[in-house]
Amino acid sequence: QSSYDDQGRTYKTETFSVDPATGSVSASALTSEIWYDQRGLTLKTVSANAPVQKMAYDSLGRTVASFVTDGGGDSGWGDADDVVGDIVLSQQEVTYDANGNTIFMLGRER
């Protein structure tokens, strides 16, 4: 089951288990969620049984940093664009030249 925002983007997906013998659907679901910024770029994704992924962008919409975190510092949409209070497991940073070419990538495992 998917939920959509006012712009038609999926922001939540719930997956339920079904008992094949009886056809009954579980009451609880595995939930995945996506948070977007005002430009429609993905800030944060959360999937069931997986770490949180967060992204940062430059003014041209290019990814300049991505993080894998525990999401522990998040309490709402306002926390989707930062890693304050999160335990960061890994991060990737990208630098571009004036033509938009990637000139440097840095990866850190913590």
Biggest sheet descriptor: 8 strands, antiparallel
Provide the gyration radius in Å: 17 Å
Helix content estimate: under 10%
| Average pLDDT rating | 95
Strand arrangement, major sheet: 1-2-3-4-5-6-7-8
Binned strand content:
over 45%
Structural class: mainly beta
Order of helices and strands: EEEEEEEE
Please give the alpha-carbon distance between the first and last residues: 35 Å
Name the poorly predicted regions.
Answer: none
Q: What does the overall shape look like?
A: elongated
State the total count of DSSP E strands.
8
* Count of helical regions: 0
Which descriptors apply to this entry?
110 residues, mainly beta, 8 strands
Provide a descriptive summary of the structure in words.
Strand 2 (10-18) and strand 3 (25-36) form a beta hairpin. The protein is built from no helices and eight strands. An eight-stranded antiparallel sheet has the order 1-2-3-4-5-6-7-8, with no helix packed on it. It starts with a strand and ends with a strand. The protein has 110 residues and is mainly beta. The model has no long low-confidence stretch (mean pLDDT 95). It has strands at 2-4, 10-18, 25-36, 42-46, 52-57, 63-69, 88-96, 102-109.
Gist?
With 110 residues, this protein is an all-beta fold. It has no helices and eight strands.
Compile the SSE list and pairings.
Layout: E1 2-4, E2 10-18, E3 25-36, E4 42-46, E5 52-57, E6 63-69, E7 88-96, E8 102-109
Antiparallel strand pairs: 1-2, 2-3, 3-4, 4-5, 5-6, 6-7, 7-8
